[in-house]
């Protein structure tokens, strides 16, 4: 009888430990997404950029004419997003502090209205804090009716403080179908 009670106590102890481990692993997994977002925001890793407008002061004195930075543009869409999505140019060369103006074009080839949201990313990640968007279609969702084509402006500035060894960077946009979420503001705006 004593062995039976001892085995029962050991089984119960093992079961409790197993359940606590499972709950702990679930909690850790659940917390990883917000922790990763905070880590990326603090370190600038993953190339996540701000989805809020940069407060630009028009001043030619703040343009660094002694060097140039080339910004390449990439337009992709999530596999569930049926839109055609392109940049009007593949790259632009700017002096730090100079405003670059270009546009992206989206076409909805379907027979239904779709709401899209563009999410920007910059590489190399060290350049993330030095590329500013003055005007961007990524600040809000974009709604296209069936067959509609929309030209969406983008105005950018490469910060004068960008490290001198960074002479080329890539601004990539991934377009997502957010129709089921409805007309909502950009995920990173309050």
TrEMBL record:
InterPro entries: CtaG/Cox11_dom_sf, Cyt_c_oxidase_assmbl_CtaG
Keywords: Membrane, Transmembrane, Transmembrane helix
UniProt key word Membrane: yes
Membrane-topology annotation of the record: Single-pass membrane protein
Membrane spanning stretches: 15-36
Xref: Gene3D superfamilies: Ctag/Cox11
GO molecular function annotation: copper ion binding
Location of the protein in the cell: Membrane
GO annotations of cellular component type: membrane
Job description of the protein: Exerts its effect at some terminal stage of cytochrome c oxidase synthesis, probably by being involved in the insertion of the copper B into subunit I.
NCBIfam families linked to this entry: PRK05089.1
Name of the molecule in the record: Cytochrome c oxidase assembly protein CtaG
Species name: invertebrate metagenome
């Amino acid at each position: 009888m004593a062995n039976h009670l001892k085995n029962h106590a050991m089984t119960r102890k093992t079961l409790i430990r197993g359940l606590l481990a499972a709950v702990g692993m679930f909690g850790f997994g659940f917390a990883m997404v917000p922790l990763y977002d905070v880590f990326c925001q603090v370190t600038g890793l993953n190339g996540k950029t701000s989805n809020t407008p940069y407060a630009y002061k028009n001043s030619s004195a703040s343009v660094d004419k002694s060097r140039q930075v080339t910004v390449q543009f990439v337009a992709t869409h999530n596999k569930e997003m049926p839109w055609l999505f392109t940049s009007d140019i593949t790259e632009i060369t700017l002096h730090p502090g100079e405003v670059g103006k270009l546009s992206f074009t989206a076409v909805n080839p379907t027979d239904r209205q779709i709401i899209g949201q563009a999410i920007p990313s910059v590489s190399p990640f060290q350049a993330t804090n030095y590329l500013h968007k003055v005007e961007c279609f990524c600040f809000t969702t974009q709604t296209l009716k069936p067959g509609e084509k929309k030209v969406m402006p983008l105005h950018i500035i490469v910060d004068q403080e960008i490290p001198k060894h960074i002479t080329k960077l890539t601004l990539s946009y991934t377009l997502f179908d957010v129709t089921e979420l409805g007309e909502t503001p950009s995920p990173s705006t309050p």
